[in-house]
Amino acid sequence: MDRTKLLLRMSALYGVIGAVLGSHMAASNAYAFRPVHAHILVVGWLSLFAFAIYYRVFSIPKKSVLATIHIWTAIVGSFGLTVGMWLYNMKPIKGIETFNLLFFIIGGSLLIICFIVFLLMTFIQGRHLGEEK
Q: From residue 51, how far is each of 9, 89, 97, 106 by CA, in Å?
């Protein structure tokens, strides 16, 4: 698995979705999607892009279990948080409010785990970080 390429492509996908959603809101002068739009761009586009750069710049071992956990919690958590936020706030399907809430909470929780794992990686993989000497 090429971590950089995967994260970069996911970031680009979120960037397009966020831009289209923003364009739709501006054109329709309806801003109900504002929080979803902001989270798509921040946790989807920006965070995944930053993580892609991290794996490109620093030589984190390919077989790092922590890195694998980080990448998948970032991807699944970003999806879960943004889609869950949309389901919870917009309620497109009536009668599944508990599912919507759980989707939102689980996605957000995975994203928190992603950032905690990233913090741990900066210490555990510290020998791979830093400037060239």
A: 12, 28, 32, 21
Query: Distance (Å, rounded) from C-alpha 73 to C-alpha 57?
Result: 21
> Among candidates 27, 22, 71, which has minimal Cα distance to 50?
71
Q: Kindly provide the b/e burial profile for residues 74-111, where b requires at least 16 CB atoms within 10 angstroms of the residue's own CB.
A: bbbbbbbbbbbbbbbeeeeeeeeeeebeebbeebbebb
Nearest 5 degrees, angle CA 53-CA 125-CA 70?
60
| Global pTM exceeds 0.85 | yes
Segment 2-17, tens digit of pLDDT: 999 999 999 999 999 9
Report the C-alpha gap between 122 and 75 in whole angstroms: 19
